[in-house]
Amino acid sequence: MKRDSRLSGVLHLLLHMAEADGPVTSEALAGMMQTNPVVIRRILGGLRKEGLVQSEKGHGGGWRLARDLESVTLYDIHLALGAPGVLALGNRTESPGCLVEQAVNAAMSDAFEAAEALLLERFHSITLASLSRDFSRRRKRNASTCDQHRH
Amino acid sequence: MKRDSRLSGVLHLLLHMAEADGPVTSEALAGMMQTNPVVIRRILGGLRKEGLVQSEKGHGGGWRLARDLESVTLYDIHLALGAPGVLALGNRTESPGCLVEQAVNAAMSDAFEAAEALLLERFHSITLASLSRDFSRRRKRNASTCDQHRH
DNA sequence: TCTTCATGTAACTTAAAATATTACATGAAA
DNA sequence: TTTCATGTAATATTTTAAGTTACATGAAGA
């Protein structure tokens, strides 16, 4: 079962946008993410609907953050990505009338909900600003050996 | 991102085996799971390596539980299935030198680990016996309207 | 105005992964 | 010695995610 790294990838994009002076093109972002510009535009198009980023066409155009770094949590971004399920495991639902399946699902659902709630609670407490601060800290720490972050 | 319902499915199989008098064939189990007998044999073959089930060939053969219901937890079964990742979300690892990625991953890893630990802890506390008792309870409750669990 | 650049989006292709199927060998019971 | 069931490799199918192409829309600059 493969893991969905879109949230991680989007955070990557947003922090790079936060670092930049002006708008960043989908082509530049695609370079960082080693993917196609259209993929970037699709993802960021979704975030724009939620008011997290804005885009401009034409010369000097591109993407920029639309909100303050302090006000955006991982949870906001998770929602903007469509709130995909956070767990890789799930219940069977092929035999809803089977009492065995009902017993199994009841027991597992409790555990699943607890884990999911904990993860989302953590997401609420992490802001783009806190990530940005951590990045700055790392940059200073690494300044002697490497003055720029690279792709 | 599709969810892995193997654990749920295996519990279904094991509880049905617990209910049965003698060995149950992979064909019968495949009928319950609406899949192919070979798929069942592959899955149960893995569990046999861990000592959870045993199989017999030939006439009257099939699969049966190898351990006491009280002694088997969901965690044991999860391990026997190869301990697949429990989270659907994960970190990007395409640019390990990028400090942005490092900051993002550090923050998310904490949250991921906490959620995973909580889920696995819950798995430790659920035994096949407790599921079986819950099933019996449901069967009694439903006795008036339906005397058998069906597929 | 007209060329250039960038987004917006639909349609399509490719790639990867999970799942299912076929085929046949092994071994046990009737 | 026939039947039945597991054991397992090889293959095929299905499903899902990701990437690509193509072209329309609109903004800035020459």
From TrEMBL, chains A, B:
InterPro entries, alphabetized: Tscrpt_reg_Rrf2 (IPR000944), WH-like_DNA-bd_sf (IPR036388), WH_DNA-bd_sf (IPR036390)
Transmembrane segments: none
One matching Pfam family: Rrf2
Superkingdom of source: Bacteria
This protein's name: Rrf2 family transcriptional regulator
